[in-house]
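Technical note accompanying the year-one report. For the benefit of new consortium partners, we illustrate the data format agreed upon in the data management plan: each record pairs a sequence with a structure-token string. No post-processing was applied to the example shown here.
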Amino acid sequence: ANPAALARFGFDKSELEGAYGAMLVPPGSKLDFEKIRQDFRAGRSTTFEMEVTTKSGHFFPVEVHASPIFEGEQVAAALCIFREITERKKIEEALREGERFLSSIQDGISILDKDLNIIRVNPTMERWYAHAMPLVGKKCYEAYHSRNKPCEICPTQQTLKTEDAAFEVIPLDGPGGATVGWLDLYSFPLMDASTGEMTGVIEYVRDITKQKKLQEAIRESEEKYRSLAEMAPDFIFIVDKELKVRFVNSFGAANFGMKPEEFIGKPLESLFPPETYDRQKNNLLRTLETGEMLS
């Protein structure tokens, strides 16, 4: 847990790290944990919204981007990036009720009619798509993606079909349709208050380019580490706080006459003679507790 997470949730590092994630979930949560587990088992990243609770019992909404972390071919943990969306939820509600003017919103807002014509945008959209100005009056796929037909993956069309909110990660396209970044696109039905009929769609758009670059850097760093570990003519292994093996390189596994994946989850105690384990145990526990490097 990074300092921002500790500060927002009100926990000390020792209280949060190693604890069950369920301590952050309020009782009665409707989050589909089984679907999340299925995504992880399949090696898929997932994005979802949920309410979380602080140490003091205060609830607030977050958006979670969760990516599985592999050890060998198994999912050992998850990288979860939390983003508080309290303000976004307020904006969504204000937009539905028509109570807030769009120009004050820092993220992108685009309002479309049922034929995908842009009828209103805020200054953020005009800044992102300055090369395609004016935006109003154009089809969304023409202005935003330099296309002559609707996009294959389009949450707005899904909302038009179902009258439900939808979400996708889409490319931020620059001049000529070249991808220059990435966006979260949330689409919401625009309803006529007097008739209850849907008249169009509100698109709420957030730039996630920096987040995508961070995730890619983390993946590259992990791949680089594992490549170096695999090439090393040394016994390299990773253990968790319970001193169970989470990773071992091929060289180390070969010395035991085993495959790397056969080590995953094994207690370290089962792999070494008692006197060797006792010496390793004291050093490892000290390192896990203090972060001190020992040899």
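Partners are asked to follow this layout when depositing records. The longest strand covers residues 59-71.
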